Amino acid sequence: MAYVDPADTAGQFALPRMTSVVKALLVVNVALALPFLFLYDAVPFVAQVHNALALNAPMWRELAPWFPLWQVFTYGFLHSAHEPMHLLGNLIGLYFFGTWLESLLGPRRFLLIYGLGIVVPGVLQLLVALLFGQSLPVVGASGAVLLLVVAMATLRPQAMVIVLFIPVRLWLVATVYVGLDLFGLVRGAVGVAHLVHLAGAALGFALAKSGALWWDPWAAAAARKEARRQASAAEDEARLDQLLERIHKQGIGSLSDREREFLKRMSGRRSGGL
Fold it and tell me: What SS3 state is found at 236?
């Protein structure tokens, strides 16, 4: 698969440039997958670890109220121990669509969005499994990857990608992916977590359509902190003006010890700023 690089004004198809977070995610996914692919059937302990890290609804029932909360995150970094193509498919999707989206959002926002693409569909899948008694463990990054596909298709619906040597609009690629999962969910196909995929797709669409993709909680927190600092400084200045006015009218003896300490602190602050 290749796509028209958004930065390429000539409109040439190109492989995406590797980005930092996607590179790290690819390494983590491969590193976690290899032990299970080669040792799952040979070493019982490895299979037990895999089941403990997968999204395992029966384990939630058995361990209540000591719920294995880590599973709603760790399942997204595991893959089928018997189907290498499960891993390969997600790695390809992460590489092509993840690098594209990360180049638009930046590493910090992209990592947050990818994490949401794992946790939110995982929680939804877990709730459904607990309510309806499903017992099959769920693994894989497919929900997060489909979030990337649909988010990019929402942002760049007319972008062209090459699929099996055929140029295709990105909106059509996303539609086919979602349509296949809808068909699988309605048909009741087992062995694939269609609900996780569709939840990731819905989340990607909602985030891109609403503009929430661009929200940076760290920048927002810094802005709130700066706003509080400025408000506090303005209050201190207003209080200082009031005290100076009182000193002018009544003398410094009219001030309490607490007010004198405030004056001393403000004097030190202003001296330090010179």
Answer: helix
- Kindly state the DSSP code that residue 162 receives in the 8-state scheme: E
Task: Describe the strand order of the beta sheet including 13-14 as a list of residue ranges.
Answer: 13-14, 2-4, 160-163, 166-169
How far is residue 27's CA from residue 17's CA, in Å, rounded to a whole number? 16
Tokens of 48: 């037990």
Distance (Å, whole) CA 246 – CA 268: 20
Mind listing the domains of the chain with CATH numbers?
A: 2-215 (1.20.1540.10), 219-272 (no CATH)
Per-residue pLDDT of the chain (274 residues; tens, 9 = 90+): 656 655 454 455 677 889 999 999 999 999 999 999 999 888 889 999 999 999 999 999 999 899 999 999 999 999 988 888 989 999 999 999 999 999 999 999 999 999 999 999 999 999 999 998 878 889 999 999 999 999 999 999 999 888 877 889 999 999 999 999 998 888 876 667 889 999 999 999 999 999 999 988 888 888 888 899 899 888 988 888 888 888 888 888 888 888 888 888 888 776 555 4
Pairing of strands 166-169, 13-14: unpaired
- CA distance between the termini of the chain: 60
- What are 2's strand-pairing partners? 162
Distance CA 32, CA 91 (A): 13
Peptide bond between residue 167 and the one before it cis (omega within 30 degrees of 0): no
Q: What is the SS3 assignment for 2?
A: strand
